[in-house]
Write a structure and sequence with these properties.
With 151 residues, this protein is mostly helical. It has nine helices and no strands. α1 crosses α7.
């Protein structure tokens, strides 16, 4: 996913792509067909492929996703960050390879930590888990007991 993310971010911050994007945004209001064509060869093509990949990974048990289509859009947005907007507005140059690598690595980790399966704990259970009145999880209370017992 890191490689995919880096290629994606590098493409979307390429000066030629930024120029096309800016043109489509400006003219798409007047010529809807241009905007539709742009969407069809870009996000409209990539997002379903990404959703199918996520669906496949879910079937394999690698990911735990209820809505792969939404996950694809969220992953896309997470990777996009502010880099493209800043490039469109001429606030910065294209990010360096090191910036892209670090940004993508952390974005992928953030995404995966949100939907990766965890042995013995369902996603619904994790999302609805409430802390006890003392505000500490079972493991925190257990560690506190172990620490007190060792004194």
């Amino acid at each position: 996913m890191n490689d995919l993310g880096a290629r994606f971010l590098n493409t979307l911050t390429d000066p030629d792509v930024i120029g096309i994007y800016t043109l489509v945004v400006a003219e798409g209001v007047f010529m809807k067909e241009i905007a539709k064509q742009f969407w069809g060869v870009g996000p409209g093509r990539i997002l379903p492929l990404l959703a199918r990949y996520f669906e496949h990974q879910t079937r394999l048990g690698v990911l735990q996703l209820e809505y792969p289509d939404q996950a694809a859009q969220q992953f896309w947005g997470l990777l996009l960050g502010d880099y493209q907007y800043q490039c469109v507005l001429c606030l910065r140059d294209r990010p360096s390879e090191d910036e892209v690598a670090l940004f993508v690595r952390t974005a992928v980790a953030c995404f995966l930590d949100g939907c990766r399966t965890r042995a013995g704990v369902s996603g619904e259970h994790r999302m609805n888990r409430r802390l006890p009145p003392d505000g500490k999880s079972q493991s925190a209370r257990g560690k506190a007991r172990q620490l007190q017992a060792s004194r």
